[in-house]
């Protein structure tokens, strides 16, 4: 894109800067629009699984529902409780939303379409998703109220527990790709299965890892069976209890942006990202970002599906699954995949 | 090869994202003052505990198991941090590198088994 602005007669530095800002807006604005639409899609899918119709009044098929909700919260009063620590109380949603947006900087949308092609892309995403915990913890603590505080403690423990196994799962993917650069991870999946299928999921060692990653990503974003941080029956509305207006909505936006990010990571790490599902010539006619979008939507459907069908876990079951099942299993798979690669690929 | 220049877009992204989210938080507060929606009173600003006034200070006590989980997380996240460089260079280090990491993992698994036996992973 820089060349385009250079041709308009700018100096190289300015052209680079303008191109970068345009690239950032090209990621952030469609993402926010996508989050608005995905909230609508979530409600629609959830309703369809319960044999009823979701939002269908505002606009055609209720398509404008999220925008009506957005306008409503925008015009509401922002309540800052007297007991709350005002500064931190207002900073928490800012942190949540900023972090949720920033992780998208290293996602390859197509070959050549990436904002920051850093060589430790996967490590960056791991770091950013760890930062997401801070927004939740700060909001719960700054509310100075009992239920938000408990919810924040739960959320922090839950997120960090599953981050451990996600770390080991990412190590398995890196072992196969030989790099933590996002491009090279996607390119390593080209023709990975029998020379035809694009994607790591095809491998018999990596498929269990993919399933573990899918479930961990549900827990990491506190979705469906693991939504203990906002268990209405015990914690009112969780860490957002004291929030209102747009600062409440920012938690929602951040949460759904994180859900979309986790869907994207599932697609990029195991389903070949922007590559078509099969390594056949004519499938490349459809541009890469369409394939990526289709994969993201598929995983989001799976997330919605799980939300509509599975009852909530108890907190002790959640921690047991994280520490006693996923952690040993993902550690075992690090040993297995690395051992297998030593025998087959790096045999010395 | 380290491409440090690739981190500049991330920094610009952070500035834009911060500005955007700050706008989302503070603009509605201004708009609410203009439209007259901003109308706080003492009852509205009190904390919500299901209709009752708060019984006690919410920051008094919490379960020590959260602390245990946090400590275990630090240990295992460090372990993952050691695994990342090993994973990208396994083709260079060969068998000695693999065996060394397995010894390291074995020692950590002993620690993990100890924590398990002691009941540090239990939530009763």
UniProtKB/TrEMBL annotation, chain A:
Any one GO molecular-function label of the UniProt entry: quinone binding
Superkingdom, natural source: Bacteria
Location in the cell: Cell membrane; Membrane
Keyword Transport among record annotations: no
Entry keywords, A to Z: Cell membrane, Membrane, NAD, Quinone, Translocase, Transmembrane, Transmembrane helix, Ubiquinone
Catalytic activity: a quinone + NADH + 5 H(+)(in) = a quinol + NAD(+) + 4 H(+)(out)
TM annotation in the entry: 14-41, 88-107, 113-138, 159-179, 191-215, 256-275, 281-305, 325-343
Biological process terms in GO annotation: aerobic respiration
NAD as UniProt keyword: yes
Main location: membrane
EC category name: translocase
InterPro entries: NADH_UbQ_OxRdtase_su1/FPO, NADH_UbQ_OxRdtase_su1_CS
EC number: 7.1.1.-
Cellular component annotations (GO), alphabetically ordered: plasma membrane
Membrane topology label: Multi-pass membrane protein
Entries under Pfam families matching the protein: NADHdh (PF00146)
Complexes and interactors: NDH-1 is composed of 14 different subunits. Subunits NuoA, H, J, K, L, M, N constitute the membrane sector of the complex.
Family stated for the protein in its record: Belongs to the complex I subunit 1 family.
Family matches, as HAMAP family: NDH1_NuoH (MF_01350)
Cited function: NDH-1 shuttles electrons from NADH, via FMN and iron-sulfur (Fe-S) centers, to quinones in the respiratory chain. The immediate electron acceptor for the enzyme in this species is believed to be ubiquinone. Couples the redox reaction to proton translocation (for every two electrons transferred, four hydrogen ions are translocated across the cytoplasmic membrane), and thus conserves the redox energy in a proton gradient. This subunit may bind ubiquinone.
Protein name, entry field: NADH-quinone oxidoreductase subunit H
Organism expressing this protein natively: Croceicoccus mobilis
Taxonomic path: Bacteria, Pseudomonadati, Pseudomonadota, Alphaproteobacteria, Sphingomonadales
Gene: nuoH
TrEMBL record, chain B:
Location within or outside the cell: Cell membrane; Membrane
Catalysed transformations (reactions): a quinone + NADH + 5 H(+)(in) = a quinol + NAD(+) + 4 H(+)(out)
Residues passing through the membrane, by range: 6-27, 66-89, 95-116
EC number(s) recorded for this UniProt protein: 7.1.1.-
GO molecular function: NADH dehydrogenase (quinone) (non-electrogenic) activity; NADH dehydrogenase (ubiquinone) activity; quinone binding
Membrane topology category: Multi-pass membrane protein
Stretches assigned to coiled coil: none
Function: NDH-1 shuttles electrons from NADH, via FMN and iron-sulfur (Fe-S) centers, to quinones in the respiratory chain. The immediate electron acceptor for the enzyme in this species is believed to be ubiquinone. Couples the redox reaction to proton translocation (for every two electrons transferred, four hydrogen ions are translocated across the cytoplasmic membrane), and thus conserves the redox energy in a proton gradient.
Family of the protein in this entry: Belongs to the complex I subunit 3 family.
The name this protein goes by in its record: NADH-quinone oxidoreductase subunit A
Species of provenance: Croceicoccus mobilis
Name of encoding gene: nuoA
